[in-house]
Amino acid sequence: MTDPLDLLDTASLLSEEERDIQRTVRDFLDDRARPHVAGWYDSATFPRDLVPELGKLGLLGMHLYGYGCAGTNAVSYGLACLELEGVDSGLRSFVSVQGSLSMFSIWRWGSEEQRTEWLPRLAAGEAVGCFGLTEPDFGSDPAGMRTRAVRDGGDWVLNGSKTWITNGGLADVATVWARTDDGIRGFLVPRGTPGFTTTDITQKLSLRASVTSSLHLQDVRLPASAMLPEARGLRGPLACLNEARFGILFGAVGAARDSLRAALGYADSRIQFDRPISAFQLTQKKLADMAVALNSAMLLALHLGRLKDRHELRAEQVSVGKLNNVREAIAIARECRTILGGSGISGEYSPLRHASNLESVRTYEGTDEVHTLVIGQALTGRAAYR
């Protein structure tokens, strides 16, 4: 049966394998996550027991090759992110951080010993990873980080802190970026290392079904083998962020689609003035405008996915996708809430939950302002944020 929200038949642009992967992820989430997500959000609980199941399904580091990873193409990974965020941004955030930040940092920049030790466990969901870049005083400007690593004989000693770290309180290993005399370098810090502690951030109004933490490093001593040997300077963490941003630009489409589906279903069943509110012109205008924006965002995501699969995707193009699709998704989720009326503030319906979550998604891994300036630099050749 044709999906009424897929006005432009974007499904026809997918391969059979891509459609099968998307369907498999959707069916799994409909069974194991969607019935419970409102409760997780309400209780600020992340479903830790789902992690091995996500690994068994092949979703963790699914776009990476070898070491137990599924090795799918970029579009398939994006479609999985779309389905995950269609349930809740917290689920997509977990998968993005695990695969595109923690695992990718090891896969791309790590030694063979580091890859062999960590990637199979992370891919299977037997271990959880996090990515420590953002600091309390340095978010958009990671070059100013204060976390420092100094040589002490054959070891490294790390001191500093990171904050707003997804999966931090769950992580068995943290990729921590620190300033050294040789520039910014990455280090793998296993949980249980003396001096390494985490504190979960509470009272969140967004991404409640997700673990967000601060990392504290006080005289954390690591062997030389803990350093990611191939990453030097900001190029290392920024490459990881581009991987995660790619998942976001698909994920935002999922949140928007789920919001619009909820609003359309409600409008068809809600009777006012003796007919469904979906029969009113103002409601149809809202639905039509949102459907056009949703389909445009999906086409943009798919185009960028094809570029990535051809190894032609540029950083400013990722910024276009992240900026546009998250911005459009928030607008759609908020407008859908208006169609739901008073019922829209109930946890029974998803749009306001998606809108709240997307406020975090809009901020992390590059604010609107930063992505705007990345695009501005591509247009003018001038870096306005330096």
Question: What structural keywords apply?
Answer:
3 domains; Acyl-CoA_Oxase/DH_mid-dom_sf; Butyryl-Coa Dehydrogenase, subunit A, domain 1; AcylCo_DH/oxidase_C; glutaryl-CoA dehydrogenase activity; 11 helices; 50% helix; globular; Butyryl-CoA Dehydrogenase, subunit A, domain 2; 386 residues; alpha+beta; oxidoreductase
Q: Topology, please?
A:
Blueprint: H1 16-32, H2 37-43, H3 51-56, E1 65-66, E2 69-70, H4 74-87, H5 89-109, H6 112-124, E3 129-132, E4 148-152, E5 155-166, E6 173-180, E7 183-190, E8 196-200, E9 212-223, H7 235-269, E10 271-272, E11 275-276, H8 281-309, H9 315-340, H10 351-363, H11 368-380
Keywords: FAD, Flavoprotein, Oxidoreductase, Transit peptide
Protein name: Acyl-CoA dehydrogenase family protein
Family: Belongs to the acyl-CoA dehydrogenase family.
Distance between the termini: 52 Å
How would you sum up the global shape? globular
Assembly state of the chains shown: single chain
Q: Percent of residues in helical segments?
A: 40-55%
Q: Determine the CATH superfamily of the largest domain.
A: Butyryl-CoA Dehydrogenase, subunit A, domain 3
In percent, how much strand structure appears in the residues?
Answer: 15-25%
